[in-house]
Amino acid sequence: MSDRKAIFITGGGSGIGRAVALYFGARGWFVGLGDIDKAGMRETEEQIGNGFVYSHVLDVRDRAAWDEALEAFSVAAGGRIDVVFNNAGIPLGGSLLENSTEEIERCLDINLKGVLFGAQAAYAHLQKTAPSSCLLNTASAAGIYGTPGASVYSATKFGVRAITESLDGEWAEDGIRVRSLMPSFIDTPLLDHNPNARTNEGIRQRVRDAGLEITPVEEVAAAAWAAVHGEKLHTTVGKTAKTMAFAARWLPGRVRKQTRSSFRPLGQ
């Protein structure tokens, strides 16, 4: 087994995945990228630039493809995987009634099923490198309190939070750490998407209109490093996420009142 630690990152072709890849790569880790975006992964490889990087086209909805990707990366990394970062995800906004069947199923499949499949596939590899190995999942501030205008997305991120807590219990005796990141609005290309197919108003503009901050993606990368090496189960990232976590715990009535008054249907 190689002495160089290795991390496999889904959604490694851009955004949070790329930032985490660069952060770990700069600290001497062998980095594996999984994504459906070949060009994006090539750009991430070029930015890492040290030769200790491997890319594999992966659709996280395909359970068998997970096994193939992790086995191939393990071989490339010298027989070890220390961290699997379940990060791939897509946004979906708008009221539930505006979301199409196809949009709902795609969001559930990528954001929730993809995390479950990744955890199943990762276990055998992480067991080999325990007790310092880690399954890291990207949840969200939307997994702290349900977000009006993002019911499906919130459901998936509550699910990721639940998976993290469940596996933290299931895998404790195996010495495998299970952690989640709960970022708020992070400056990544996802903010430039439309909430759903029925609107042309980008997510970034809606965040600005609401007076909320957009957190630099580098903060998530540093939080990922801390989560992998620390004892905290859930790590909030960004002012909005930290404020929401505090309020949901200590001021639930106020949070409910604010969320009920804040929702603005698309087109208004």
UniProtKB/TrEMBL annotation:
<dbReference type="InterPro" id="IPR036291">
    <property type="entry name" value="NAD(P)-bd_dom_sf"/>
</dbReference>
<dbReference type="GO" id="GO:0016491">
    <property type="term" value="F:oxidoreductase activity"/>
</dbReference>
<dbReference type="Pfam" id="PF00106">
    <property type="entry name" value="adh_short"/>
</dbReference>
<keyword id="KW-0560">Oxidoreductase</keyword>
<comment type="similarity">
    <text>Belongs to the short-chain dehydrogenases/reductases (SDR) family.</text>
</comment>
<protein>
    <submittedName>
        <fullName>Short-chain dehydrogenase</fullName>
    </submittedName>
</protein>
<dbReference type="InterPro" id="IPR002347">
    <property type="entry name" value="SDR_fam"/>
</dbReference>
